[in-house]
Amino acid sequence: MAALDDPGLARLMWTHFEPVHAVTYFHPRARAAYEAVGLRGYWRGYFAGRAAPLGPVAAPLVVAAFYSFAPAMVARALPSVWRLASPEEALRARLTGAVQALAEFTYELPEAHLVEAAGLLEEAAGRVETAGRVLGAANAALPRGEYPLARLWQAATTLREHRGDGHVAALVTTGLDPVEVVAWRCRVDQSREFHQSARGWTDEEWAAAEERLVEKGWLTADRAPTEHGTEAFRAVEEATDRAALGPWRVLGAERTARVRELLEPIADRARTIIPPQSPIGLPAQRTAARGAATPAR
Question: What is the model's pTM?
């Protein structure tokens, strides 16, 4: 495994805790839990569940924190979702659905395995630096789960949002706006057909973003990624990884390796429900962690 000062370690650990978190987006039990509290439709559950740690917030804060969504898309969900379910109800639904989903992937594992995994991942999540990390801080402040799977999922979620906050901070330094970032990635290794609609950008906004990317030197005139853009985004990924190393340095090499070992069977099963076109980018990230040169997120 990579050394504690190697940014690749943070990326490798992300490939193990991200699938644990991601069941909340892709498992039918998670969807059913949101629907049970009145959050019908995928995006109502998504925005309410992910934003709930922040309280009954309006669209502008979520646009800023989630980063890649079109403001108009966020405004269709917020603040109206809070008339359907309070943040407290959304949080309970989020955790209930995630635990039920993880139970399907872990029923063959000994309880001692889950208890140890939850304890170590909780310790890592408890050591995140939250300054400047809104979603990471909000999740870190939530009450401790009562059962091992609840604790495991919440720890994975805190680590995930902590890393995501760092990724957004790195993206801001590029001088690109959110639609430009999404449009550029879709010229590299992602699908415009999927991501444009999933993030709510119009054809006009997308075309204007690509024009700006050409002007800024990230795309060529025929819309191919430039060397400048490729290197600049690689620097973003490296900065993201460096900023996410803290919890693993604190945990130490031996216990970090143990976390990876314990999460492996859970992550492998959870990963099977994540669609290949998902904006999470996990399959490519997994390949990158094993030595390929393809940056992904």
Answer: 0.93
